[in-house]
UniProtKB/TrEMBL annotation:
The keyword Hydrolase does not apply. CDD domains: CBS_pair_bac_euk. The lineage of its organism: Bacteria, Pseudomonadati, Bacteroidota, Flavobacteriia, Flavobacteriales. InterPro entries: CBS_dom, CBS_dom_sf, CBSX3_CBS_dom, Diverse_CBS-Domain. It comes from Flavobacterium bomense. This is CBS domain-containing protein. It comes from the Bacteria.
Length: 141
């Protein structure tokens, strides 16, 4: 299964903010959209990603104010990305090796979607269900 197949199932909707937004504004969008990370996109260029983990480690644990801190102060700028043609195994290896939970999907340097560890796990479970069904039908023939 490829990233494109996951996106065709889950959708390609992407939520983004600007690096000049406050962390509080970013968290508000994340809460409203029920997402664990948000992309920072400016002039169609991916500049970074902000996750709940960034907030917890860089704001809460350092006793900073999310209403006074800006996204650019805590966002991850070394963003790990994938392409629509990448397969699930590659995504899993990347997420594990880079210790990330979200992978923006880029095509020609433009963000066309984002997949999460949850999306990857769901896809793997679906593949396993299909394999089990095929094996069961093979055995019962």
């Amino acid at each position: 299964m490829t990233v494109n197949q996951i996106l065709s199932t889950k959708g390609k909707e992407v939520y983004s903010i600007l690096s000049t937004n406050t962390v509080y504004e970013a968290l508000s969008v994340m809460s409203e959209k029920n997402i664990g990370a948000i992309l920072i996109i400016e002039d169609t260029i991916l500049k970074g990603v902000l996750s709940e983990r960034d907030y917890a480690r860089k704001i809460v644990l350092k006793a900073k104010s999310s209403k006074k801190a800006f996204v650019y102060e805590i966002m991850e700028t070394d963003v790990v990305t994938v392409s629509p043609s990448d397969n699930l195994e590659y995504c899993m290896e990347l997420m594990s090796a880079k210790r990330v939970r979200h992978l923006p999907v880029l095509e020609n340097e433009i963000v066309i979607g984002i997949i999460s560890i949850s999306d990857v796990v769901k896809a793997i479970i679906e593949i396993q269900k299909e394999t089990i069904q095929h094996l069961n039908s093979y055995i019962t023939q």
